Amino acid sequence: MDQEITQGFGRLKNDIARAIEDLATLSVTTYTGNLTMKADKILKRTKSGNKITGFNTKALIESLSDGANANMDFKLVGFTYLDVDSDAVVFVKENLTPEQQTLMEAHRSMVAASQEARMAFLKFIKELA
Amino acid sequence: MQSLFGLEAYLPEGQLEVLDQGRESEAKQALIELGYLSPNLNSSQQTFTDDLLDGIRQFRKDYLRARLIPTGFRTEIREIQRIEGPGQFSEFELQLLLRLTDLEGSFQLPTQYNIGDQSLFTRVLHYRLDVLGLYTQAIGQAFNSETQKAISQLKQWLKLTHPQQVFQLLGDVPKLTQYILSQPEYKDRIVYFRHHNPRHQKLFSFEHAPEFRREFRRRLKQQLDRQSTTFKDFKKFAFRNEKKMDFDFLQEQVEQDSNRLLLRLLQVHQWMRGHYRGLLDNEMGDVTFESLLEFHRTEVEAGNVDLQAGHFMMHLAQGYWVLNIHYLFEDILSPEFFEKFDTEDFYHQFNSLMENHSVQAKHNIQRNMNEVWQAVNDEARQELSSKKNLIRRIYQGAKSLFRTLGRMIKNVFRWLAQKVKQTLNILKNMVKVLFREIREAIRMFGRGLGFLFGKRMVYTPHPNGNQGVITDFDFDFDATLIVPEHSSPHLLRKHVENCQSYVKAMEFSMLFTAKVIKWVITSSSPIGWTRFAFHLVKVFKNFIFGELLRTRKPFWI
Lengths: 129, 557
Known about the structure:
The complex is a heterodimer of chains A (129) and B (557).
Chain A: H1 2-19, E1 25-34, H2 39-42, E2 43-45, E3 52-55, H3 57-67, E4 73-83, E5 88-92, H4 98-128
Chain B: H1 24-33, H2 45-65, H3 74-84, H4 91-100, H5 120-131, H6 145-158, H7 163-170, H8 173-182, H9 184-187, E1 191-194, H10 198-203, H11 210-223, H12 229-238, H13 247-255, H14 257-273, H15 286-301, H16 309-312, E2 313-317, E3 320-323, H17 325-332, H18 335-339, H19 343-355, H20 359-382, H21 399-407, H22 409-418, H23 424-453, E4 457-460, E5 469-473, E6 479-484, H24 489-522, H25 529-550
Antiparallel strand pairs in B: 1-3, 2-3, 4-5, 5-6
Helix pairs in contact in B: 1-4, 6-7, 19-21, 19-25, 20-22, 20-23, 23-24, 23-25, 24-25
């Protein structure tokens, strides 16, 4: 039993090492769209359907990839790509409406949050090393 | 907003976490203490459940009104109620309840009240006065003339000039006791009480243990000023043979307010340390008396081998007893008790000592801990184990208990391994608190693993039930933000705040998790579950302590 704990954590460390594939770049993508019909697919509900109990991640990811084709009415509003050398690519939809400009502010905040999260992840790895 | 003194750790995740199963009894107990729930279990299960729901609703209303939680979290509280049902507690709520009912100085009350004020704070004030036996009205009542009377009484007894000083001392029983004992009129006090139990009387009789009588007097001489009225009266009216004893004097002493206050304080200390699990009632009944004997036994186990119960209490005659309260409190409130051990020391020592045991001994300790834990759970389920159909009142603070255990940590293993019955009360409390803290650390560890390998999705619901905003972070924190059309700026702001909170909580949990993983994988020997659990708590506590030092927030565990 004692061996199992130690070995289990050893495997955990290897999993983390394998999973870190691309820490050199960071991308943030912002979409807006009408999700009315699709939301039901991504939310888990109780049997009666009255209460939301969580998310169906798989369905969401599938919906997102479908959305790129035809099924979802998504518009790309902003895309930010940063690499380790601080090179950056920023895409912003042209002719933003005032409402979409608010979206861009949220997008910028999300870039900051992702950078902070990335930093936390790097600290985690440093601590493990 | 009122300072939460570290409870912020339960808030930053953007969504309050639902309480683990099996911990509701802890919350119920605290709700009873604060008068949100009746302790009377005569009512039917249905009525009790309805009362519980009403109590929880009122508690939520009160802490929101007291501004003990940021306004933004009101939505999360409503969300928990909507999804889980109104009777579901959150981790934050349990921690808040435990903080509010703590009597060791971890929650400072506001110091201004007027007649008619009714709030969470007046409940805490009434609870503290009730514990000391100074307030007998309903805890949930508004600040009233009885409250004022109790505060004035205490102010007068303690010779304080402002009621505010009373409020400060009320929440810290050890400090309050030290303050009381240092007052001139309490400096030479001894406590008289009545206790009719032939077995106990025989145990402490002159015939059975003549040396107790001499030793009691000798120690009393050391403690008190020999010229004091107390000592002279003791010699003149009490320390006589039965025929010459003045029973009117003894009865008068028993009924004195100051005598009752000191006896109550002693009972409260016994309760806080885990020796006493009965009602707080100013009476020296069998349970209180046995708790003193247990205290004595555990002190001797801790190495205080010279201490004899007969040195601090003596049966006079006809059920009248005398207690050398200064001598007893000197031991209870000794600086070593407060300074030598802290919670971190306890876990550190627990780990080191555990390492030195054989595999078989470790197995026995673990098995017996589980059995004690089972007994604690059975007790919580029965709940009817106390007299008068009242739920057993157990102090849920951890500091005093850990100090008590810290003093006798080497014996704790022996008690556990050999299942020493006389120490069952203290072991039950220990296991309850240990398991509570282990679960806390495991929860934080699990949260860290969840951030690493779980869903990394932040969802902010629309207040009207329409679609909310979603951010999905992938493994290396690339983010996808999906915003429904025509979302309000307010909803977006809220979502950004949620994401920021998520990231902050993640940083905290992942660093903690990394420390634990590193310890396990670099350990030179295999690690068992017990060792893992205790190390988890130790790292958790050190980590929280470090974080709070860094952010200059007060330490809360």
